[in-house]
Amino acid sequence: MAKIKNYLGRNLKSKSKRDKLTKSARSLLMSKIHSKQTSFERYFFEIIKKELPRFETHPKGILGRPDIIIRKHKICVFLDSNFWHGWQYPRWKHKLKNDFWRNKIEKNRKRDKRITVTLRRKGYIVIRLWEHQIKNDPSKCVEKIKNNLANE
Question: Could you tell me the pTM of the whole model?
Fold first, then answer.
């Protein structure tokens, strides 16, 4: 077996394989994935409750509905999942089954960039944390937010 050199230990050079699930089974599975209150979000919220001043989750009225906002300091934090937001997407896009998923992830990435730029122009500090960063070193992610509180 070839040595795998990427961060998550996945073989990104392999070819796309036929889906083992039927179309309806895959659809049912994907419909159960939520955009809010994912397991890594809930895990991170529990950690930061002890560490940070008052914050809100998924506030209405702010572009992109950040996962966390600290209004007093105008800090928006987005917790981006590796798949849906395309962490290192160019390395693994060839493995996707069809154009639907490529288009979906590419639109998500463009939207993320547009939202980040717009919020920064409005004076917000925008922090984007990846799912694997939160899982591997949550304290470092909390520090990243705290540092932006201190730098104000």
Answer: 0.76
